[in-house]
UniProtKB/TrEMBL annotation:
<feature type="transmembrane region" description="Helical">
    <location>
        <begin position="110"/>
        <end position="130"/>
    </location>
</feature>
<feature type="transmembrane region" description="Helical">
    <location>
        <begin position="45"/>
        <end position="75"/>
    </location>
</feature>
<keyword id="KW-1133">Transmembrane helix</keyword>
<feature type="transmembrane region" description="Helical">
    <location>
        <begin position="285"/>
        <end position="308"/>
    </location>
</feature>
<keyword id="KW-0808">Transferase</keyword>
<dbReference type="Pfam" id="PF00953">
    <property type="entry name" value="Glycos_transf_4"/>
</dbReference>
<keyword id="KW-0812">Transmembrane</keyword>
<keyword id="KW-0472">Membrane</keyword>
<feature type="transmembrane region" description="Helical">
    <location>
        <begin position="254"/>
        <end position="279"/>
    </location>
</feature>
<dbReference type="InterPro" id="IPR000715">
    <property type="entry name" value="Glycosyl_transferase_4"/>
</dbReference>
<feature type="transmembrane region" description="Helical">
    <location>
        <begin position="212"/>
        <end position="233"/>
    </location>
</feature>
<protein>
    <submittedName>
        <fullName>Glycosyltransferase family 4 protein</fullName>
    </submittedName>
</protein>
<feature type="transmembrane region" description="Helical">
    <location>
        <begin position="137"/>
        <end position="155"/>
    </location>
</feature>
<feature type="transmembrane region" description="Helical">
    <location>
        <begin position="184"/>
        <end position="206"/>
    </location>
</feature>
<keyword id="KW-1003">Cell membrane</keyword>
<feature type="transmembrane region" description="Helical">
    <location>
        <begin position="161"/>
        <end position="177"/>
    </location>
</feature>
Length: 321
């Protein structure tokens, strides 16, 4: 009953937010680099922040985690309403990351790993944010990640937080996973969800000592990192909006409906997670299996990307001109 009430609370919060967003024009207007064609309410991902806050009130989330997500959620919501200079956004991200590492360091000695973990959290947050470009992709991918974490015995202490976040995702999905989305997550949704998932991933690796759990983020990692490297190779401004991710080519140039692309990303990630959890096994780290898997995924991604772009080269040149 408690969780049913929480789900309807998230639905109600979204409906109330829609009225406020329409009144104050918190709208995402399409441009030449957008994958959508109509003005849509942005910032619906604020329910992810509400889920973490509710988890903290119920004793299912620590105060550093709740404060970090409220901080980045608040500054991102402000940026969704009225674009901010990069300095306050970066400062908020750095402070939130420091809070998360403070939490993760309790009961363990992170030591020399702190700079690497700091870089990983900041990098993951930005990559996840970059991937939020079509209907359904963020929330469906997040649901797969949350469900996968829930399968790991070492994460049993996080089950209530995971469930509340999943309920918030389901409420948001009702308005987002459709041909014409009622709302987008906005920076408040993608950034806050990215930080929560990054926090949970690092916590899981600390608890198990197994970095192979990073493969739970394989699809996003491949598309985001390889696209970034390709843009750097082409000497493009990586801070400018673009349509170079594989999911963008699939949705725009190949003309595949957004929801189908999003389901494909989430479904493929779910299959990968199942292979590692039930097939290879994650009790110990298998170096050989990990290296073979990484090589196969990179080769498959690059091969499919090359084939897709070659097949749709005329459409791509026309839309990028």
């Amino acid at each position: 009953m408690y969780y049913l009430i929480a789900f309807f609370f998230f639905l109600g919060a979204l409906l109330l937010y829609f009225r406020l967003a329409e009144r104050y024009r918190i709208i995402d207007k399409p441009n030449e680099r957008s994958s959508h064609t109509q003005s849509t309410i942005r910032g619906g991902g604020m329910v992810f922040v509400l889920a973490v806050a509710l988890a903290w009130l119920m004793g299912a989330a620590s105060w550093p985690l709740a404060l970090a997500i409220l901080l980045v959620g608040g500054i991102s919501m402000w940026d969704d309403i009225r674009p901010l200079h990069q300095l306050p956004r970066i400062s908020a991200h750095f402070l939130a990351t420091a809070l998360l590492l403070l939490d993760l360091g309790q009961g363990t000695h992170l030591g020399v790993w702190i700079p690497l973990l700091f870089f990983m959290l900041i990098g993951w947050t930005n990559l996840f944010n970059f991937m939020d470009g079509i209907n359904g992709i963020t929330v469906l991918y997040a649901l797969v990640a949350l469900g996968s974490f829930a399968l790991v015995p070492e994460m049993s202490g996080e089950r209530e937080l995971l469930l509340l976040l999943a309920l918030a995702c389901l409420a948001f999905a009702w308005f987002n996973v459709r041909k014409k989305a009622r709302c987008f997550a906005g920076d408040v949704g993608s950034v806050s969800m990215a930080m929560v998932l990054g926090y949970l991933m690092i916590k899981l690796i600390i608890l198990t000592g197994n970095p192979a759990y990073l493969f739970f983020f394989t699809i996003y990692g491949l598309d985001a990192v390889i696209t970034l490297l390709l843009r750097l190779y082409r000497r493009e401004n990586i801070f400018q909006p673009h349509r170079s991710h594989l999911y963008q080519y699939l949705a725009n140039e190949a003309g595949i409906p957004h929801v189908q692309v999003s389901l494909a990303y989430a479904g493929l990630q779910l299959i990968i997670n199942g292979i590692w959890v039930y097939g290879v096994g994650l009790e110990t780290f298998h170096w050989f299996s990990a290296m073979v898997f990484v090589l196969l995924m990179i080769t498959g991604y690059l091969g499919f990307r090359y084939w897709l772009i070659k097949k749709n080269v005329k459409n791509i040149e026309k839309k990028n001109s």
